[in-house]
Design goal:
This protein has 233 residues and is mainly β. Helices cover 5% and strands 67% of the residues. An 8-stranded antiparallel β-barrel has the order 1-3-4-6-7-9-10-13.
Length: 233
């Protein structure tokens, strides 16, 4: 609750009167990355990248002398597919998995625009992003002469088995990045660092009767976006 109140205060502070206001859209490449613990080594966060896309709306406000804020509402999709691997010795079939990740985002970036020529700016920005996970599905396959679906996991944001993924839908990241704007066209890129633990609770392994070390991690994200401001207020 405290984190949500902080985000609400940030959004409120971003709505102060500004000298220039723009509203537009953006589209780009995104790589959400889960850095989650593994049972074999509780001190190692194993990264898994989900390559995909990002699309959404952006609101840009300049308050004074280049200082301002950029806010948005984005949809992000990512997918990951592992290579075929053998489990045990033959005749066990090879297996692989495919994962799909969907989320909504509200980025709030404080920025400074350096005007290097008429209607041309270099942008530096930093700020938080509030993320809401919609779906996180993992499908497992085996090779028996052809690819066969053997299991479809539930949405990993709502599974009940605490020995497996049990992830929060709400995540908060802090990003840094840079961009370039000419007239109403822009390109921005940066990296978001996860700042909260995405697991719902401390997990307990009922098989071995002890705490499962897979209880910490974070969600990060690379991104690069191009866009255009359509309306000026």
């Amino acid at each position: 609750m405290k984190r949500l109140l902080i985000i609400a205060c940030i959004i409120a502070s971003a709505t102060v009167a500004s000298a220039q206001d723009f509203l537009g859209f953006q589209l780009g490449y995104a790589q959400p990355t889960t850095r989650l613990n593994i049972a074999e080594n509780k001190n190692v966060l194993t990264p898994t990248a989900y390559n995909g896309l990002k699309v959404g709306f952006v609101y840009d406000a300049t308050w004074f002398k280049g200082f301002g804020v950029s806010m948005g509402l984005n949809y992000t999709f990512g997918a990951n597919s592992t290579d075929w691997s053998s489990v045990g010795k033959l005749p066990y079939p090879k297996t692989r998995s495919k994962s799909f990740y969907h989320q909504l985002e509200i980025p709030i970036d404080w920025q400074y625009k350096f005007e290097i020529a008429q209607n041309t700016w270099v942008i530096l920005y930093t700020g938080p992003t509030l993320q809401c996970g919609l779906d996180f599905t993992k499908r497992n396959f085996k090779d028996t002469g052809k690819e066969v679906l053997v299991e479809t996991n539930k949405n990993l944001f709502s599974v009940d088995d605490m020995r497996d993924y049990a992830l929060k839908r709400i995540n908060v990241t802090w990003g840094v990045g840079a961009g370039f704007q000419y007239d109403r066209y822009f390109i921005r890129g940066g990296y978001d660092f996860g700042i909260i633990n995405p697991y719902k609770a401390y997990q307990f392994d009922q098989v071995v009767g002890e705490g499962n070390p897979r209880t910490r991690g974070r969600f990060d994200q690379w991104q690069i976006k191009i866009g255009m401001y359509l309306w000026q207020f």
